Amino acid sequence: MTYSCRVDPNDPRLPGDLALAVVRLSRHLRGRRATALVSLTQLSALSTLMREGPMTPGAMAAAERVQPPSMTRVIASLADLGMIQRAPHPTDGRQVIVTLSDYGRQVVEDEQIAREEWLRGRLDTLPEEERDVLARAVAILGSLVSEDGKPANKAPHPESAAVRAADAASTA
Question: pLDDT tens digit string along 18-37?
Answer without folding.
Answer: 889 889 998 888 777 766 78
